């Protein structure tokens, strides 16, 4: 006899039809298969594979939509709602969103995932059979991770954060590489579940990667130049800042050091985009 457990797949027989769906059975216990959970035609007496969960009315329910996320089975799940004081809800592919409790989320609320972020989770079930999401632990990630090749050195790589700590952020890529970003290698701490792209700065002996989110100097200068140009556009092409401006004023307005500001100005002047005059910086009209 097939055991019926929430959060897992079961093979059950179609017992009888009702106005709102079918009842399935393992010859000892009946489970509702609502019409909204049917993905293809079925017949009385047929055995079908279904996913078991407790619905919003606390009824034991079956779904022919088989999610990749199950008890002890990990996959990515998209965040569909953030609810302060409770946690975040994720979509695993059935007609009920699953809660990841705030107890499992970072203490700092600005590091909570946002809608559209994805969490690497499995399911857990309480005594009443209600399901919740469980974040993958470091041990689980290590077991699932693939060894990264040395050829990835200095290459760009994408992944999602699965753990955020003061020392840095931990990332799992979609192709299964485990990465670490030290806090000194990130300009801004990424959220849990956020997709990030960084540069591989070390391939470790265990096959994991160290990644930096800080652009190379020329890439950073390009971004700084873009910041200055956007500001100039907003001020009709002139601003009361130059390479002689106070470092504090520059930091407050542009969020960059005076050295970075001067390098970016120098690049724009060399390219003939701007010029300086009497402590002001102006965009050239032909730009």
From TrEMBL:
<dbReference type="Pfam" id="PF21543">
    <property type="entry name" value="CvfB_2nd"/>
</dbReference>
<feature type="domain" description="S1 motif">
    <location>
        <begin position="5"/>
        <end position="65"/>
    </location>
</feature>
<comment type="similarity">
    <text>Belongs to the CvfB family.</text>
</comment>
<dbReference type="InterPro" id="IPR003029">
    <property type="entry name" value="S1_domain"/>
</dbReference>
<dbReference type="InterPro" id="IPR040764">
    <property type="entry name" value="CvfB_WH"/>
</dbReference>
<protein>
    <submittedName>
        <fullName>S1-like domain-containing RNA-binding protein</fullName>
    </submittedName>
</protein>
<dbReference type="InterPro" id="IPR014464">
    <property type="entry name" value="CvfB_fam"/>
</dbReference>
<dbReference type="InterPro" id="IPR036388">
    <property type="entry name" value="WH-like_DNA-bd_sf"/>
</dbReference>
<dbReference type="InterPro" id="IPR048588">
    <property type="entry name" value="CvfB_S1_2nd"/>
</dbReference>
<feature type="domain" description="S1 motif">
    <location>
        <begin position="70"/>
        <end position="136"/>
    </location>
</feature>
<feature type="domain" description="S1 motif">
    <location>
        <begin position="152"/>
        <end position="214"/>
    </location>
</feature>
<dbReference type="InterPro" id="IPR039566">
    <property type="entry name" value="CvfB_S1_st"/>
</dbReference>
<dbReference type="Pfam" id="PF21191">
    <property type="entry name" value="CvfB_1st"/>
</dbReference>
<dbReference type="Pfam" id="PF17783">
    <property type="entry name" value="WHD_CvfB"/>
</dbReference>
<dbReference type="InterPro" id="IPR048587">
    <property type="entry name" value="CvfB_S1_3rd"/>
</dbReference>
<dbReference type="InterPro" id="IPR012340">
    <property type="entry name" value="NA-bd_OB-fold"/>
</dbReference>
<dbReference type="Pfam" id="PF13509">
    <property type="entry name" value="S1_2"/>
</dbReference>
């Amino acid at each position: 006899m097939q055991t019926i457990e929430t959060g897992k797949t079961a093979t059950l027989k179609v017992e009888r039809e009702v106005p709102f769906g079918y009842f399935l059975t393992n010859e000892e216990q009946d489970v509702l298969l609502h019409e909204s959970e049917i993905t293809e035609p079925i017949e009385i007496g047929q055995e079908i594979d279904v996913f078991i969960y407790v619905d919003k009315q606390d009824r034991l329910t079956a779904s022919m939509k088989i999610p990749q996320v199950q008890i002890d089975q990990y996959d990515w799940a998209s965040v569909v709602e953030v609810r302060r004081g409770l946690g975040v809800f994720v979509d695993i592919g059935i007609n009920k969103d699953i809660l990841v409790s705030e107890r499992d989320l970072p203490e700092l609320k600005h590091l909570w995932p946002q809608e559209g972020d994805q969490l690497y989770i499995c399911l857990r079930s309480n005594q009443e059979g209600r399901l919740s999401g469980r974040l993958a632990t470091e041990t689980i990630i290590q077991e699932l991770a693939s060894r990264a090749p040395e050829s990835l050195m200095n290459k760009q790589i994408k992944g999602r954060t699965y753990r955020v700590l003061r020392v840095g952020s931990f990332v799992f890529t979609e192709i299964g590489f485990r990465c670490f970003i030290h806090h000194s290698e990130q300009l801004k701490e990424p959220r849990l579940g956020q997709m990030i792209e960084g540069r591989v700065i070390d391939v470790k002996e265990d096959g994991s990667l160290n990644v930096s989110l800080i652009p190379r100097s020329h890439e950073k200068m390009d971004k700084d130049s873009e910041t200055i140009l956007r500001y100039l556009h907003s001020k009709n092409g002139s601003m009361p800042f130059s390479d002689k401006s106070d470092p504090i004023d520059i930091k407050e307005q542009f969020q960059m050091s005076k050295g970075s500001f001067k390098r970016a100005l120098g690049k724009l002047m060399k390219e003939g985009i701007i010029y300086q005059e009497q402590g002001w910086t102006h965009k050239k009209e032909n730009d």
